[in-house]
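note to self — DONT lose this again. spent like an hour looking for the file last time. sequence + predicted structure for the chain T wanted, 301 res
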Amino acid sequence: MSAPTLHATPAAGAVLREQVSAVGLALRVPALGALVLLLLATALTLRHRLETGEPLDFRPELTLLPGLAGLLLPLAVWKGEPRFGPAFFWTLPVERRQHALTKVLAGWLWLMVAVALFFLWMLGLTLLTGGNVLGEVTLRLVDSTVNVPGMGEVPETLRTVQWKPQPVLWLVSFTSSSALYLFGSAMALGLRHPLRWVVGFVSGVVLTVTLAQVLRVNWFFDEFAPDLAPLLVGRYGLDALLSARTESLSGEVRLPGGEIVNAWEGLPDVGDWALATLLWTGAALALLWAAASRHREQRRR
């Protein structure tokens, strides 16, 4: 009786190519849905242009859609994959942690393709509607503040500035979606039911905040908002990762006379965005490594 033939462990490149192909097939339905939404958005944008004459400026750092896509994509990448317990996925001749991380890498490559297409779609709409791509924009910047009883620190004077967004900020869509994709992948690999955790967490936050507003429990916001502010909208907070702080630095402000205007508290800083991206991405990578390592230990039982 002849001995069974032993095959060498597949090279990392071969495993990655197979995973890219497999993940691409798994993402066909979500990709089709995204295409339909883009076509609908294109029609609505062009209709708005014809009705109002307003162009669409090219400001990819202002959109949070790539980040949201990155967070949710792992659910599609790992859908139907029995990540825990014995399964065919784990019987392949590749170390389990390596195989899991390779699959994450394959999903990330498809994500970058999707973000690049979304980027080009926004650029195309801007050119089609005659919008601003590289030109300066006029902003109203808070020049000084004053303490008003009952209102706290409010803007006293505003000044007009000309600001030219730096093209490096166009990378925000790629970096933010990558960091959130790594975090979502860590949840998908580390939790048995990641969707339940996401839905439960979001529902709990929304319910808590809603009840606090309905019952006018001001102490809730006074106690927790200051602690969460640095994490969410601080110099290196989540908003710095997602939009280079263009969301938190701009908005409506109330002047001492009661007038409400749109103004900026400051201008985005590329250095702050870069450091925030490194911190958040590093944290997500650490979580992903820890989640993937669970499966390496499980194989040795």
